[in-house]
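The material for today's practical consists of a large collection of protein records. An example says more than a description, so a record of this kind follows:
***
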Amino acid sequence: MNNAFKTLTFVFLFTCGLSIASLGQSVPVHAILEVKGKVVVNNKNWEKPQTAFVGLSLNSDDTLDIPAKASVKIYCSDLSIWIVKPGKYRASQGCPSSKAVIRLPNSNNDTLRPVGKTEAALAKLPYLITPRKTDIISDRPQIRWNAVPGAAYYTVKIETDGFSWTNKTNENKIIYSGDRPLQADTRYWVTVTTNQGLSSQQDTEVGFNVSDEQTKKIILDAIEKIQKQPLSPTERELVLAYLYRSYELYGDAINVLEDLVNQGKKEISVYQLLGDTYLEVGLPQLAKNTYQKGLELAIKTQNIPAQTSIKKMLKQVNDLLGNKSYSKS
């Protein structure tokens, strides 16, 4: 996981390469949900301290300098909320370093994009959006893909060893309705084909896994707790998005974040995290526009750290798409 990706995340960054089941072994990083007044945060790896903003992630060793009449609301990795009053603190003083429920997912960016596919070429394909390179906890998932201009209908196939389900629709989404519930710990492959013969496999072959019952229980218990906490609707949705990402439920995270974007939310972190998630599942063409909207918000609010981070990611995305004329300036 590169440093540019890490600096973009809003909540719950954790070390890479950890087992999803090893809750006790993860190293938590927490996040700022709300800032009142001018608060300074320092990390030993930064060139200089920076002013806190909503979406800034914190390691347990990071320090906060909170002046009089200021405060910070931090969401900790164990699903607790810490309201920090004036004073100087280490993040670990209010956010426990154990029992982390939400953490950085393992990167699955082995193929960020199909080689040789430009934005224009991809726009003509019914490439899969969700569930794509993801786990799911539902045995009746919604399948969603890029709407192809001129397509009258689509044929959708889900298959694995010894199983195949096929259906047709004139929309760019469908809910799996087979007689057989999808099975845990099984890899399913999805193919979408237009009536014109264009196939999602011309993008790349992708699919999803169904989470096991133990993991599903952990996630559902966490969701129940989050829903009962004193969070604003936007904060709650962002927390849920990070919960989903922690267990590699990228499709669920995309759905939550897209809903926030469609509501017209102005939090930069929404666009950053959605762009990150698109990129994680190999959709740089969708990440590009999302990052661009986030950059516009960062410029409007004069958020220099966010501008720097998003520009780095835009450069990476445009390189992946072969947009050589893109300038990061």
Summary: The chain has two domains: 3-104+215-246+249-320, 123-133+141-200. The helical segments are 3-8, 119-123, 213-228, 233-246, 250-262, 268-280, 284-300, 304-320. The domain at 3-104+215-246+249-320 is CATH 1.25.40.10 (Serine Threonine Protein Phosphatase 5, Tetratricopeptide repeat).
